[in-house]
Amino acid sequence: MSGFVRLYQRLAAQQGQLRLAAPPAAVTKVFSLTGLDSVIAVHTSTEAALGASCDVCDRVADARAGTSGGERGVG
After folding, report:
1. Is the pTM of this model over 0.85?
2. pLDDT-derived band of residue 70, with 50, 70 and 90 as boundaries?
3. SS3 for 23?
């Protein structure tokens, strides 16, 4: 898990995003239990990860921009 956190931090420092696509159920459960799913977006498929904005992505983008809510989309 620490590898995901380090990767997330490196990407965030460059205004990037980490999206996890179609992980095994055990990984999804660990992300949920640890709260990482509130920071790193977990998607059910590659298409979903590459598709339109997601709630986690929007929250992370809003936090970086200093806004409070869904004012800014990520696509």
Report:
1. no
2. very low
3. coil
Chain-centroid distance, C-alpha 35:
11
Spatial separation of the C-alpha atoms in residues 37 and 18, rounded to whole Å: 11
Coil, helix or strand at residue 68: coil
Cβ pair 74, 53 in contact under 8 A? yes
Task: Find, among 7, 19, 27, the residue nearest to 49 by Cα.
Answer: 19
Task: Tell me the C-alpha distance between 51 and 45, whole Å.
Answer: 10
- Closest by CA position to 19, among listed 66, 44, 63: 44
| pLDDT tens digits along 18-30 | 889 999 999 999 9
